[in-house]
Fold each of these.
Amino acid sequence: MRRAIILYKKEDAGILTQSDDGSFTFRYHDKWFESKDSPAISLTLPKNQQEYHSEFLFPFFYNMLPEGSNKQNICFELRIDPKDYFGLLLTTAKYDTIGAIQVKEIKT
C-alpha cells in the first residue's frame, strides 16, 4: 500500500491511497470535509461524499501526469515504470504543479 497527502494551496485536503490490489481511494480529511469554506479539490471529487474508490487512478490525478517525451525522460532518468502512474504522480507532483494541488508521499 502506498499513500500520499493531497494538498490544496499547501493545506492538507485528504489522502490518496493505492491498495496492494492496485485500486485507489481518495478520502477528504474530516476537518476539510466538514468545513464550508474548503472547496472540493476537483469537480470529479465533489464534497457530497467523503471517500471515493476506483479501480484505476482517478482521472483528476492521472491528468496531472507528464506525457510524451517528457514522461519518457522522467521515467528513464528516475527508473520509474511508465505504467506506475501512482509512482510517477508522487515524483512529479511534489513541488511545481499547474493548479493548486500538490501530492506528497507518506513514508511508512
Amino acid sequence: MTTLNRPAAPEGHICGIDTAMEVIGGRWKVLILWALHEQPCRRFGELRRLLPGVSEKVLASHLREMEADGVVRRVSYDEVPPRVEYSLTEDGTRLNDALEPLAAWGRERSTR
C-alpha cells in the first residue's frame, strides 16, 4: 500500500530498493522503526521523547504513512484518558532486520 502523497510511477517501481525507499523515505522513519524495535510497544509521547527534534505533526504523519504501508500497527484503547500504542507488524520487523546491515555499515564508518 502507498499513501496518497507518495504515488507510484505509472509504470510501477523500478526495483526493490525503490519500493523499500518509498516506505522508509523521510528523515524520521528509520528512527521510528528503531525505537519500536527496541521496545515492542510505545505510546506517541514516548516516541516523541526518543526523537528530539521531530514535531508532533511530522511524527503523526510518519506514523500514519507507516501504518498505511503495513509496517506499524496502531492500537487505540477505549479509555479515559485515551491511550494509543504503536508497534511493529511482521513486515516492520522484517524491514528492521533488512536495515541491520546498513546500521552495521554506519557504525563501522563512524568509528574511522
Amino acid sequence: MEIWINPACSKCRSALTLLDAEGADYTVRYYLQDPPTATELEAVLGRLGLEPWDITRLGEPVAAELGITSWARDATNRPQWIEALVANPKLIQRPIITAEDGTASVARTPEAVRAALDAKP
C-alpha cells in the first residue's frame, strides 16, 4: 500500500494516524517532492476509475493561473489535464491510497482509509 501525501494537509495527517492505529504496512510518497510521472498518474487514475479533472484541486492559485477551470473535460483535452497535474502536483487531490488489491482511493475520509485497509489482494 502506498499513500501520496502532503504533510501540511490535515486530511493526510489524519489518514496516516488511522493507518498507524490499524498497524497498516504502507509506504509514504511525498508527491510534491516526488511528483508522479504521466504514466504513474494514468495508472492511478485507472485504479481510481476517475478522470484527471476529478482529482484536480481547482481552488489552488496555480489552477487559476492556468485557467484550468475553463478547460474542456473530454478525451481530447485529457492529455492537457495530465500534463498540468504532473507539472503542478499541488493540483492533485490528496491523500491518495493505492491498495493491495489494485484499487485506489482518494482517502479524504476515515471511511475511505478503512476501505483501503480492507482491500485484499
Amino acid sequence: MNSQRPVNLDLRTIKLPITAYTSILHRISGVILFFGIAILLYGLEMSLSSEEGFARLQACMSSPLAKLVVWGLLSALLYHLVAGVRHLVMDAGIGETLEGGKLGSKIVLIVSAVLILLAGVWIW
C-alpha cells in the first residue's frame, strides 16, 4: 500500500489542542500518584513503627528535598482531582462541545495552578 499522505514524525512541530494537553497531564499525574503512594506508605509505616521512627521521619521531612517531593505529590493529586471533577461534569452532559471542552481545559489549568501555588505556600 503506497500512501501519498504526508508523515510528520517530528514531535516538536506537532501542535496539539489544549484539551490534549490537559488529558496527557491527567494521565501523567495519575502515574505519579500511583508510584508516589509507595513513598507515602513507607513514611506512614516508618512513623507508626516506633517513636524513633517518627522522629526520623520528622527530621527527614524538614529537609528541602523532602518538601519538594511532598509538594510534587500534592501537586499531582490536586491536578488529578481538578481534572477528574471536569470529567465528572462532562459525564453529566456539561461542556461536551468543542468550545466547552476548551473552556473546561483552561479552567482546569487555572484552578490547578492556583491550588498548586497555595499548596507550595502551605508546605514551605
